[in-house]
Amino acid sequence: xxxxxxxxxxxxxxxxxxxxxxxxxxxxxxxxxxxxxxxxxxxxxxxxxxxxxxxxxxxxxxxxxxxxxxxxxxxxxxxxxxxxxxxxxxxxxxxxxxxxxxxxxxxxxxxxxxxxxxxxxxxxxxxxxxxxxxxxxxxxx
Length: 141
Description:
- By secondary structure, the protein is mainly beta.
- The chain is built from three helices and seven strands, in the order ββαβαβαβββ.
- The protein has helices spanning 46-49, 75-78, 100-103, and strands spanning 5-15, 34-45, 65-68, 82-83, 107-108, 111-115, 132-137.
- The longest helix has 4 residues, at 46-49.
């Protein structure tokens, strides 16, 4: 049996302390509600997903599995990596737009990489020669 999976790597926020039901959190106060960031892997079962197409789906194949890292990085720990986000085009709606003084530190310069290490190859360090599945940087997202 052949299994076809897709992987998307993200940084996810753990949120708290919360807000009153129905009361929005202004963008200027968002950082006060972020406990920290984790690496999150979102897996899709592509071999099942093709059977969930029009007119029925997608259903569960798109969210086949989700993993988060065992560590949480606080915003204080990320402060040295704060940077200005690239300009947004098209511009966002007004309630999502940051004040100009907040834009200077509204994202982080964090490199992300996904390496696929086949079973039995755990000790092999040549992943840059073919095992690197994806690279990105949070400031570009």
